[in-house]
Amino acid sequence: MEITAKYSPEDFENKWYTYWLENDFFTSTPDERTPYTIVIPPPNVTGILHMGHMLNNTIQDVLIRRARLKGFNACWVPGTDHASIATEAKVVAKLKEQGIDKKDLSREEFLQHAWEWTHQYGGVILEQLKKLGCSCDWKRTKFTMDDNLYQSVIKVFVDLYNKGFIYRGYRMVNWDPQAKTTLSDEEVIYKEQNGKLFYLIYKVENSEEYLTVATTRPETIFGDVAVCINPNDERYKHLRGKKVIVPVVGRVVPIIEDEYVDIEFGTGALKITPAHDINDYEIGLKHQLPILDTFTDEGKLNSYGLHYEGKDRFIVRKEIVKELEEKNLLLKTEDYVNNIGTSERTGAVVEQRPLDQWFLKMEELVKPALKAVLESEEIKLYPKKFENTYRHWLENVRDWNISRQLWWGQQIPAYYFGENKDFVVAETKEKALLLAQQKAPELQLTLADLKQDEDALDTWFSSWLWPMSVFNGILEPENKEYKYYYPTQDLVTGPDILFFWVARMIIAGYEFNGEKPFSNVYLTGLVRDKLRRKMSKSLGNSPDALKLIKDFGADGVRVGLLLSSSAGNDLLFDEALCQQGSGFANKIWNAFRLVKGLNIADIPQPESAKIAIEFFEAKFQKILSETEDDFSKYRISDALMKIYKLVWDDFCSWLLEMIKPAFGSPIDSKTYNEVIRLFEDCLKLLHPFMPFVTEEIWQQISSRTPQEALIIANYPEEKTFNEGILEEFEFIKEVISGIRTIRKEKNIPFKEEISLSIIDNEHFTTKWNSIIEKLGNVSAISYVEKATEGAISFRVKANEYFIPILDKINVEEEIKKLETELHYAEGFLKSVRAKLSNEKFVNSAPAQVVENERKKESDTLAKIETLTQSLKKLR
Q1: Nearest CA among 154, 797, 50 for reference residue 494
Q2: Domains of the chain, each with CATH number or no CATH
Q3: What pTM was estimated for this model as a whole?
Q4: Which of 222, 250, 338, 741 is most buried, judging by how many CB atoms fall within 10 Å of its CB?
């Protein structure tokens, strides 16, 4: 097979991915081997590949490919999440383009459109992951709306309801006016925003007096039901028991007292709007105040808004301020910075509204999850620093609002009946009927009398079951696959969903299986640009992931991402990293071309080749041992960097130089075969990181059957190695570097042989002399007792090395060059000493600065001495 001169990943990436698929190398079934299981963090069915996905899935693929090489039954389960809010928004937008309003459709009609959209556009990201080289078991691909996953969610809901953990209650919740659904507390992102503080005038009933109330949201006055003062506030004692008139609205409301009010904030008087603020809601309950919800689902004013009915809340804010000014009911306005809650999914400003919703009690459920991570350490977080975040969230957990006002998702299995809207909870309508008939036999209910709850469950309520439901562990807990693959081993995800998903999966694992869902959680950092900004479409700083793969090859992109991505730390992405990864792949390719281009002969193995092989075997084992430790601590970036240096420096730059025969000469067969063996071992270490180029080279090294493919080869075994030879090699590298430096400085071409004399104060072994001769083009090495006349010298530790150069250089030019250097050094010394003789400088400058100047002085003196001695030898 002819080896192409240029590394061209586009020539073989699709070829090898197809080969792996055709030979079922990604497929896993239970057998006698130890399983190694990863479940993919299911990307939204609406998603397309971005840099965060690239990083996360590259790390997962590294782990799964390495496990496969190490003989585990590696199973990586892919899939997608139905993403209730995001997908419903996409479908609604598409329908709008077709002139269809969701409100005009039945639930069944809308779901038909949603499934059509999902089948057409959903799962694109999984196809894109294949371009990255992800070796998922695609035959196991799951979707959170698959029948058995759907039924798993319903079963869990019913189970938790029957245990008393799920309840329906009228509570203050977060409302997304754009998605028209509630959100959990964790789905609200608070952002600092510049706003205004408006001081409104509330006239005291039947009086010329007024109260001034400061608010950031004058558009909510239509829901005001009281004004609250602190009972300890002396300013307002005379107003106790009186009433005020809500400006513009004209409603008369009571002045109430509560210590919640901060006397120092604003005017010390607080307008109470229970329907639009959680704190006002609590005060309203305490004082038995009415609740007036003045907003529509879209965030517009309803009939309570009088002449503003139908207008958006933010437009009303501007217009009502003008009206207040015109009516002399606005005292003043101040700039004010506050935190605004926004929807994680849509970015809309969230409203707090009291609604009937379904909640999951969390206080008891979180206890096993806290213990598993923070006490027994059954589950470990990497890096460990995230344990504090985990603890904070779980120790301060609130009941989870699990209902969403959406149609796309698992419909809540609650069935209402009768005039009082009584309900029962059951897995099917038929089971619900039996329960309802038992609950209200007098009603003589039929299926037609039952109406299922319109709401769907929070998407996270399905994904928290993911490690179990992908193996059908909820519906069939005794099934073979579930008992074999669960619990899984590693989870790779971002710290931003540590509570949303990771903690909830742990909670679900212990609640429904009595066991952890995974053993280790590797938390990646966020991908940021060079300016440390989070990558996003709005900033335009997120590169096209597929274009990167096209430009640099999948291997290059994978290496570029991983080299700068240590666990939990943000990755500062630069395309130059992918260029570096591509350059590394090219380096490996050229090394392969060099090795395969050698002529092999049945001749004795040179001593230099023998010791070179011995050195590299020891270095390989050292790196293998260190990377095993790195992987055990999830320092994947560190492991790659060690392997990178092993291959680039030790294999390509040193080993190949040491074994390469002279131009036109053959290599002995023993050395060639050993180099091929070592190269193959390097490919095995590299394969998890760079699957395509390593498989291509592996298959070109020799003709292989599918059973001999690199993807299923055996990972190198750890063996004892000679530490001493590695120390010796570091010494020899300095010797060779010294020789090459003199050649460069004195313009002695490499093809010209030189001799070397050594004063061997270190009593260093002579076994490396053949390497020195080969890599330094040294004709002879001699050991001497004193300095060699007419030679340039250098030191390595206590040893002195001399290279005679008088016959190699133009003496007059060398003297002139050294005299110029000496003149410059003497001038520099003079300037340094002038500074040190300045008492003001010495006494006032920082100690480290003064010390640096003294070091410059001593270094320059040493250089002057060396130059002086060199000139003496030449004159």
Answers
A1: 50
A2: 33-165+361-405+454-524 (3.40.50.620), 181-352 (3.90.740.10), 566-721 (1.10.730.10), 725-804 (3.30.2320.20), 811-874 (1.10.287)
A3: 0.87
A4: 222
